[in-house]
Amino acid sequence: MIKAIRHRLRVWKAERRERKKDNERSSQWPRVRDAFKKNRPCAACGGIERLQVHHKKPFHLARMLELEPKNLIVLCMGPPECHLRIGHGDDFEAYNPHVEIDSILCYTHPSDRATVETKARLSRRY
Question: Whole-prediction pTM value?
């Protein structure tokens, strides 16, 4: 029960965080985001629940890459919370510079997920 409540709180915070950025983003972002995640599962777990588009190189560091498909990856905020744990190293104020490799490792070796999450936390940058 407590785990489910914590998960809902983290999902709510993630969604609120994304809404706050809306006024900073390109007017093209909603179209690009929706087209990119269409027919794509989470890159880290294959899930299809609560999908979000994550910037590999963060928006605040590379605004010019905001709409570049090569800078995007789909991660979920479903129960595995891949967006938070793999994309941000368990801290939405940070980013994981190895998100693409770590997502592939999680997807291809799910039994190593705990190790990959630890690596993402240790690799995070602010």
Answer: 0.90
Full residue range of the structural domain in which residue 118 is found: 2-123
Report yes or no: 74 and 52 within 8 Å, Cβ to Cβ: yes
How big is the CA angle at 103 (ends 118 and 71), to the nearest 5 degrees? 120
Number of domains the chain contains:
1
User: Dihedrals φ, ψ of 117, to 5°?
Assistant: -65, -40
What SS3 class is residue 102? helix
State the pLDDT at residue 24.
Answer: 83
Q: Name the token pair of 52.
A: 């979000």
Please identify every stretch of the chain with a pLDDT value under 70, giving residue numbers as ranges: none
What was the pLDDT predicted at 23? 79
